[in-house]
Structures are given as structure tokens and as C-alpha cells.
Fold these 2 entries.
Entry 1:
Amino acid sequence: MNVTGGEMPGPAAGGPLVLMETSSGEILLELYPDKAPLTVANFLRYVDGDFYRNTIFHRVIRDFMIQGGGLTPRLEEKPAAAPVPNEADNGLSNRRGALAMARTTAPHSATCQFFINTADNPELDFTAATEAGYGYCVFGSVAEGMEVVDAIAKTRVSPRGGHEAVPVDSVIILSMSRFEL
């Protein structure tokens, strides 16, 4: 996979690995603390605190991304910690397989929700330090399990509970934990 336009760092580069076990299969994520240190530390706090257990992918848009990490299967929002500053100006791009922080329209509003790009989405990249140009911070990528991401992306969705594209059959994040090779 090629997230930066050049060679992507591999596990040997020392980036933390996180194993996401879902009801659709396992996804191994590699994180880039050298590119997004505050974002990676924030994400790992949620991972280490078992926050993501039994949350769902609540927004699935085919040929775009799958988003999760903040809602229960009943679409109840879990209480999150304070937002993390947006580190989108780090040279990484929202390409297929890239892991990025979800946020509101406010640039520095990301807390616990994340998304995995299922297509190249350069329109989500940093262009300027303005509300419209800030982009979405890429802080990792799928190291293994892109076939699971693709399967989730093909699931049938419908509007539900005030959300636009919720999988009809819940895709549950069973657990997330640090992974050692």
C-alpha cells in the first residue's frame, strides 16, 4: 500500500501496531507517531482503555470510507475525551487504506472516531490552515486485512437513528489491542 506517494514505512520502522477484531474479521493497523504524535497518543489511550470494545462502524459509504469508534450498536454515542489538535499537515494523504480521524466541521474537533479510506480521497487532505482547508489527519494505515475493510464497505446500509449510512447488519468492533510481531 502506498499512503504517502512514496514508500510507506513498514512495521520494522517501529510504528505501533493495533489489532482490530471485528464481527467481519481482523484488521491490523500500523500507526505513525512520527507524523501525528498527538493523534497516535490519543488513539492509543482509547485502545489501551478498551474504549472501542462493542462499538460499531456506523457510517459506511461505498467507494469512500468506513467510519466507526464512537457509537454503540444502539447508536448511542460513547462519552469521549477532549478533542486532539488536527495534525493533518503532516505530509500523509487520505489514500486507500489510510487511517484518519473523523471530526465535525470544526478542524480541531476529533476525539475517538476514526475512518479507513476505501478509495483515494485527496479532497480530504490538508491544503491550508483554514476551516475549509484543514483536512482530516491521517495517522496510520491498514497493514493487513484490507479485504475485511472492503467487505465492510460493501455491506448494505440505510438511514437510522439520525445517521445517513448505517450498516443494516451491525459491524461490531469486538476489541482493539496493541499487537506485537
Note: The chain has one domain: 16-179.
Entry 2:
Amino acid sequence: MPRVLVDAAAVPADRGALIRYVDGLIAALDRAGADLVVVCQRADAEKYGRLAPSATIVPGPVSITNRAARLAWEQTGVPLLARQNSADVIHAPYYSIPLRSGVPTVVTVHDVTWFTEPDQHSAVKASFFRSATRTAVRHANRVIVPSKATREELVRVLAADPTRIDVAYHGVDQAMFHPPSEEEVRRATDRLGLHGRPYVAFLGALDPRKNVPNLIRGFAAAVKSVDDPPALVIGGGVHEDDVDAACREVEATIKVVRPGYLRIPDLPGFLGGALVVAFPSLGEGFGLPVLEAMACGAPVLTTHRTSLPEVGGDAVAYTEPDADSIAEALAALLAYADRRAALRSAGLARAREFTWDASAEAHLSAYQRAVE
């Protein structure tokens, strides 16, 4: 088994799903007996020591909390640590790689929307990630993607060699994301000021491709004629101008709650306590929020875009991403408790198929191919 250096310092602290990917993967690699070196931010050293007790934990310099400094250090510091720790392969889990590493490199490319949906990102961010993705796909020995849809898009958009791309689905932490108790639901919803009021939930970043403005408009239309309508709770992310504008369009009788980032311990109660978790994204590399909601026993409404059907299968409801379609699909789910109950059961069963242990095995195979 090769000795693997994972650059866990690469993932920004505010990228919730990506943090869960790196944390879940490292813990599973350690359980699988991988010979692991984890490079991380100094503030994360204790956490990774707990997640991977058999691994060698190497804190990076204090300066790499700055993004520009970290990218520069990635080109020199990471290869140096690989040599010092006798690593056989470097895994860069967030798009960019050291170009002269001295050992084989593996990179995770999470999605290709920087190319296919450039208007859904800021121009600066899209430009950086397009460049990083092109470079990584060209120079890495193996490319890991979280879905078949992302692999197909990489081949289509960048003419990437499909024989060098490995699909490794994400897993879900069943201890963290689970059907909640009544007390967990009460605690999470009381923090939101709902106090027993039914609600529809969204959880994720508020960047344009998450399609939150259309969700707000669709929800408002779906409950407009309901005497005592549920609330809509928009959890997570940075508030965007388009989200603010959509909220201003909503009638005063319709309640939209925007709590910002939610505490991890509150997520099972928040997701599992919802009438519906709505995630009408325009495109995802994987769609971890859908999987996590299913694991919490929530009925999920999402779109047919990119990888989302690979995750949801027949266990979720689907809509087109426009506001009228979302309104129609939400109204149908809110009207039929039996349909929601069936989705809860199907989602729980499907979520059990996605484990970090299986993801770790796929990653280990990619590392071995890179070395060979």
C-alpha cells in the first residue's frame, strides 16, 4: 500500500461540504489501514489527530491561512513535506496541485460548472478555478471525481483522458446525519424561532447555481393560498443580492427565515424535521446536501441536473429549476403526507448505500494506479 500525503490544508474553512468530504475521507482511509500523512492548517491538527489516530499529522506554517500564501506554499512546501515523509503519492483534494512534486499526484475535481455555468460564479473565482482545473487535469497522474456526470463533463469540456479519471462517490457520516429524535427537532427549530411551526428547508451555499431566488419565488407561489402556511428556512452561505431581492417580493404573510450558517449538531434536527428539504440546484459535482438530507429521513426535492439523479435515484422528487415548476412540485409534496412518508423511507434506504469506507476504497485504488 503506498504512503499517501493528503493536503488537507487546501480546503477553505468556509466550504462546508468540501470540509466534510476531506474529513470523512481521511477518517475512512485511516480505518482502512492506509499509510497516511495529513498536512493541515495548525488549527486543524488536533481534529485530524482524532479522525486519523494512526496517521502522521503535519501542521503547515502559520502563513498558509492566507490563500495566496497557501497557493505559493503548495508548489514548494508540499513537495518538500512529501520527500521528508517518504510519501509515494500526493492527494490534492481541491482542484490545484504542486506541479513539480517529485512523486505522482492525484487531484479531486469536484465539478465543472466553472466551464459549463460560468455566469453562476464570480468572474474572478471562475477564472481561477478554470485555470486550476485545466492544469490539474493535464498534469496529475490520476483525477478523482465524485460522480459519473462530472467525469463525462470533464471529458466533454476539456477533452480529458477518461482512462485517467476515477469515480469515487462521497459518503455520508451516519453518526452525524441520522433521523433525529423529537428533542433534536425541537432544539434545532427553537433556535430558529419556529417553535413547532412546520417548514420547508434549504441548506447550502447561497451562490447563484444553488438557485435560491427561484426556490423562494416557487415556495411563495406554492403556499400562497394555504391558510396557515409553513415557513421557508434558508440555511447556510453568504447572503446574495438576488436572494435579498427575492425575499422582498414575498408577501408579509409568508415567513422566510434566513439564519445563516447552522451548527453541525443542529443539522439532523433541522433537515429531518422539515416537511421537505428543497435543493433545486442548477448543477452539482455530487450534491452532498441531498445525500445528507436523505440520511436524516427528510423528503427531498431536487433537479435532474448533472449528478443529482445519481445521488437521489428514485428516492427523491424532481423538479425543473424554474420558479413555476418548483411551485408545482412543492405544492404537490406539501399536499400529500403519504408521498412525503414514502420519500422519507426510500431516502433513508438509499443513503445507506453511500459510505465513506466505500469512497476510501475507491481512493486507495486511484492512489495505487497513480504509483503504478
Note: Residues 88 and 249 are 56 Å apart (CA to CA).
